[in-house]
Amino acid sequence: MASTTPSEGFPFPREYFFPAFFTRQPNLTIHHAQLTKWSSLVLAYARHHRIFRLALSAAADSDLFYNRQLDRRLAPPDIREVVDFMRKDGRAEYLQPGDAAAAGAGAGAGDVVLIYWRKPQEWAVLIEAYVDETAQKGSVLTVYELTEGENTRGTEFHGMDNGVLMKALNILVKRGKAQIFGSEDSLGVKFF
Amino acid sequence: MSRKGVGIAAFDRSRITSAQFASHGSSLRATNAQALETQLAVFRSLLQQFAATHAKDIRSDPSFRAQFARMCSAIGVDPLASSNSHNSNSSGSSVWAQLLGKTVNDFYFELAVRIVEVCGATRAENGGLIGLKELRDRVSKGRMEGADSISDDDVRRAVETLKPLGGSYAVVTVGRKEYVRSVPRELSTDQAAVVEAAQVLGYVSVSMLRDNLGWEVARCKTVIEDLMAGGMLWVDKQTKGEWEYWSPGVMADTDGGDAGP
Questions:
Q1: Searching chain A, which residue's CA lies closest to the CA of residue B252?
Q2: If exposure means fewest CB atoms within 10 Å of the residue's CB, which of A1, A2, A43, A145 is most exposed?
Q3: Which domain of life is it from (chain B) (predicted)?
């Protein structure tokens, strides 16, 4: 998954070309600034490539955390620190083994992180707006239709990760705006 | 040879003469002052005229603005000297404000606000020491499309306007580079030397300082640690050799698509 040129269309920010950016800074203030920059880099990168879940062990070798041009990389413990920082900000979440989102996750728990370049609440708002705009309140949609159907082509959540989608839908359920039924493979959603 | 009076009348005469000299002197002084006053008034009105005609140029052309500001300071008019009241009545505001209906004046104040913003936003990563050019670039980038361009001179002037606020904003020169400092911290001679050394390659290392400045290793380490504690250097431990200490200003110099250092 890692190419030698850190390009693939994603414009890396300047700090990505700053060698010391890849070393954990001992000064607390700087360290905080460093985490903030890493966090926004990860989010921008994930948004650009539409990455919803990140396997940390594999990502450590990807150009996100490994600048081959400079031969500098962010060490795995430091990556975890960035993820923890993002979690506090509500921008990332470890995949829990029992979690509904874990269904279909290949790698073990604790390694895969959901990256929220949009938070589930924000996704929920988008989906609700779509349902509203297309006058599908009261009708039933399958989960598959929402993310893979022809009608949602062009919307932001087309092709989105199922785990994140379920989190977003559950938020709507809690608000009494939707109802989920059906079994594992053929989930349907009714919107109100 | 005329013989001056030796009688008692001579005293009278000399008194009269000195009185005449005095009155003549004061009238000369008065005319002089009057002439100066007229000159100043003329000059002022000309300056005003000039500023009014060229207000657009002054606003839009950084070098023109710098020239105008230099002209003002050459004749002892501090264009930015604003009295305490901030409202627009003519006596209370600065020359800029009087001349240009506040627009140029506001230009500097707005610029100063942006400078404070940028300094605040970057303080965590550079310890409150930011290169003047970098600051200018960042400020320019944050401006609206089509806004007037900003020169280094403008930044210097805008930083000047911040002085009365006591926020320790100042332009400092280290080596050949100018910085804007936004923390109340003076660099020691040693620290300045290291900051200057880091301008060359973007980083320094202990052996580099030892060899080039002839310092003991302990001294090099102390200064580096001080600067690190102040947030003005970032450590890079992945050098496969000696650690390098990078000046965060480099982050701004190397552009995203660039090959880096």
A1: A14
A2: A1
A3: Eukaryota
What residues in B contact A29, CB-CB < 8 Å?
Answer: 124, 127, 231
Asked if A112 contacts A175 with a C-beta cutoff of 8 angstroms, the reply is: no
The pLDDT score that the predictor gives to residue A43 is 94
Cβ atoms B191, B226 nearer than 8 A: yes
Nearest CB to A18 within list B245, B254, B257: B254
pLDDT digits (tens, 9 = 90+) for B185-238: 888 899 999 998 988 888 999 999 999 999 999 999 999 999 999 889 999 999
pLDDT (0 to 100) of residue B5: 57
* Structure tokens that stand for A11 in this block: 């414009």
Question: Contact, B232 vs A5, CB < 8 A?
Answer: no
Q: Which pLDDT band holds residue B83 (cuts at 50, 70, 90)?
A: very low
Q: Do A37 and B228 touch (CB under 8 A)?
A: no
- Is CATH 1.10.10.10 correct for B187-261? yes
Q: Alpha carbon B215 to chain centroid distance?
A: 34
Considering CB atoms only, which of A14, A27, A70 is closest to B256? A14
**Set of chain B residues whose Cβ sits within 8 Å of the Cβ of A23:** 234-238
Is the predicted pLDDT of residue A108 greater than 60, yes or no? no
| Domain boundaries B54-186, CATH class | mainly alpha
Written out in words, the top-level CATH class of the domain with range A120-191 is mainly alpha
What SS3 state is found at A7?
A: coil
Residue A55 is which amino acid? A
Residue A50: pLDDT over 60: yes
Q: Where are the domains of chain B?
A: 54-186, 187-261
Query: Residue A36 pLDDT > 50, yes or no?
Result: yes
CATH fold of A14-115 reads Arc Repressor Mutant, subunit A (1.10.10)
Would you say residue A4 has pLDDT above 50? no
Cβ atoms of A60 and A76 within 8 Å: the answer is yes
> Where in chain A do CATH 1.10.10.570 domains reside?
14-115
Tokens (6 digits) for A57: 């062990």
pLDDT (0 to 100) of residue B157: 86
**Are B251 and A21 within 8 A, CB to CB?**
yes
Q: Where in chain A is the domain with CATH 1.10.10.10?
A: 120-191
pLDDT of residue B89: 42
Q: CA separation (Å) from A148 to A4, A154, A178?
A: 32, 11, 19
Residue B97 has pLDDT above 70, yes or no: no
